[in-house]
Write a structure and sequence with these properties.
By secondary structure, this protein is mainly α. The chain is about 70% helix and about 0% strand. The protein has helices spanning about 10-35, 40-45, 55-70, 75-85, 90-110, 110-125, 130-145, 155-170, 175-205, 205-220, 225-240, 245-255, 260-275, 285-290. α12 (about 245-255) runs antiparallel to α13. The N and C termini lie far apart (about 135 Å).
Amino acid sequence: MAAIPVTRERRKGVAKARQLRLAASLIALAIPLSGCGTGPLWDKFLAKDETFVDEPADKLYNEGLYLMNQKKDPKAASKKFEEVDREHPYSDWARKSLLMSAYSFYQAGDYDSCIGAATRYVTLHPGSPDAAYAQYLIASSHYDQIPDISRDQNRTEKAIAALEEVVRKYPTSEYAVSAKAKLQAARDQLAGKEMDIGRYYIEKRDYTAAINRFKTVVTQYQTTRHVEEALFRLTEAYMAIGIVGEAQTAAAVLGHNFPDSRWYQDAYNLVKSGGAEPTENQGSWISRAFKKVGLG
């Protein structure tokens, strides 16, 4: 059989048929996609090209100040300040915002976040004039979480360490005065804890354990309000176990340093009831402890 010559018209017809088959297959593919709403591939195809634009650092910072001062919303303010630090990390605004975020966290009662931000500030900017305030925020965050004396005092010890850091590193700053006041209150708290345990041992007639607790107050916290009672309790415990000499010294030191104390009258009567007088033994640890800090 003779070959049928391929004409131009026949070639055009074949190409057109191929185009129709391709179009039909694309339509078939599109139907399940449209039936499923918007799949990830379809969304990506339709998505517009949007370019992210950073907000100016000063604008974000001022928005944070507005939220803090006018709106009284420290939580929202902290987010604005963190945004400055995140988007403009090497700017002067970032340094200011880091400190303000610590302050915002403190005002919001988020003490752990405050400690984190303030610690980062002190680490990154130790020579800044505001480093003293950052350190003070760390100390205040610990201080504000001090529990009552019936609970563990780990937070109190952290507060004391941080407050001492303020006084040691920034003694001439305006925050040192406030830190010293809080430091005294925190030490008073630890002394109160020791007294509480000591009284418990007195009730249990475990006088040796009680003496050790009161000794801690006398040697480590003698500038607190608990030292007067601690000296009386030492008088009481020593009299109970028959070590009259130490009881006499405790009563005498109490009377010499706190003559108007109600605890001295009780100590005096207790020693007298045992047929003795308050008399200070200069070699006693009690006498040496008070002379060490200029008391007595």
